[in-house]
Amino acid sequence: MSFDRVFPPASIPGRLLHWLLCSLVCRLGCNLAAKRRPPARLSRALSICLLSLLPLVAEAQSIRLLRDADIEHGLAELAQPVLQAAGLNPRRVRILVVDDSGFNAFVIDQRAIFVNYGLILKAETPEMLQAVLAHEAAHITNGHIGRRGQNARSASTAAGFGTALALLAAAAGGGEAAFGIAVGTQSSALRSFLSHTRAEEASADRSALAFLTRAGINPEGMVALHRIFAGQEVLGSAHQDPYMRSHPLTRDRIRAAEAYVASLGPGARPGSEPGAVNSPDAAYWLARVKGKLSAFTRAPSWSKRRLQSEGYADVKRMRAAIVHHRQNDLAGARREMQALLGARPQDAFYHELWGQILYENRRWSEAEAAFGRAAALAPNEPLILSGLGRAQLSSGRPGAALVTMEKARDLDFRNATLLRDMSLAYAQTKQSGMAALVTAERYALQGRLKDAGPHAQRATGLLPNGSPAWRRAQDVLIAFEQDEKRKKK
Ligand SMILES: [Zn+2]
């Protein structure tokens, strides 16, 4: 598991920000429980990519992705029937976890649904989480992003993706003040943006309920989800998020969802027949995702107290191993992991976890072997390949590491930790053009275009003109130059 921090840029260009707000369609519950919180307590168990904080115009928070192959796989399993029912290709839409304990989910383009880890931990049933995913999928299929994002820089490159995320953080972070700045302090603009969103939120809910029913998932998850939000309504408006205040009343959305569920009748509701087991697979994946997330984000003592109530034997072992690891008890972690891998020898993600634990205990060659087994079982999983590459690099094999890491990067560029490892491997193998390129891309991914520019410039000078790598450097350079131009205006 790695935490990739994405910082907002030092200044927020008005026009781009306006686009961003217009394309930021999904605010399910809209930062309902989003409270500013201190940076997550970072255990030794987590590989971290920390960078210096830039002065910010709107005191914006950063958006940090929490990348983990196991968790993303579990979420993909939960999303698969929903995306399919929405007519989306489950292989093309990733579910990415935001390192934020607040209750929120959103989309910025057609390629990914972002979910805060706080929302995942609060989902009591898989149907609740699937209702969130259905709502986000509806924002994609109902054209809420495509139509508005036409002028946006594509998020399919590190530079575009990083800029979009950084602007998103800037827009979400500063409360009312930031919101005023964001829309040029024009209340009419603010109102028209919000009213537009209201209509979209209602339409996304309607579509989501249809997707859930089509997928055979009990749509009552949507009602349960809205009831969580309902609690927020009793807060005095001073304690509510400003965005929440202008959002559709939760009561209305509950009523609409309840009316829909009632219209299906008890017999027609999927999963509601007497004695029906509502998707045992979905229940397993939710337990596994929550188990790993909580083991890494909550205090080990908290996880320890809950081990006895864990219903799935393998998830229980995984949680116990992570608790031992976070308490610097490698022997204890080894005991649990050996039992776990004995019971689930074909599970690539458990081998990967063992690789991570060994790596963080500086057992390079053992770690490489564990990651190697994981990669053999899941050869196209970029986050596993990225772990293997890092272990190879630490074992003093930068050449082998690069082969692995380049494959990982081609499969998924949204991984700042990988890009940092790659710059080391390129430098060690004397490929300074490539080292400059991935450094430029890493900064761009973190929204730091000012820092990315000089590295991109250097890369274009060193790389063969017109080559794919040269074109990637050009992408960053163009983003940098546009950003500089905007700042001068
Ligand atoms: Zn929404």
Rounded radius of gyration (Å): 23 Å
Strand element count: 6
H/E order of the elements? EHEEHEEEHHHHHHHHHHHHHHHHHHHH
Helix content bin: 55-70%
Structural class computed from helices and strand pairing: mainly alpha
Specify the overall morphology: globular
Strand content: 5-15%
Ligands bound to this protein structure? zinc ion
Overall mean confidence score, pLDDT: 78
Oligomerization state: single chain
* Tally of contiguous helical segments: 22
Q: Can you tell me the number of structural domains?
A: 2
- Note poorly predicted spans: 5-60, 147-152, 173-196, 240-247
Largest sheet: 6 strands, mixed
Distance between the termini: 41 Å
- What is the strand arrangement across the widest sheet? 2-1-3-4-6-5
Describe this structure in words.
This protein is mainly α and 489 residues long. It has 2 domains: 267 residues, no CATH class; 203 residues, Serine Threonine Protein Phosphatase 5, Tetratricopeptide repeat (Alpha Horseshoe). It is 63% helix and 6% strand. The protein has a 6-stranded mixed sheet, sandwiched between helices. Helix 1 links the parallel strand 1 and strand 2. Helix 19 runs antiparallel to helix 20. The longest helix is centred in the middle third of the chain and has 28 residues. The chain is globular and about 65 Å long. The two termini are 41 Å apart. It binds zinc ion. Zinc ion (ZN) binds next to helix 4 and helix 7.
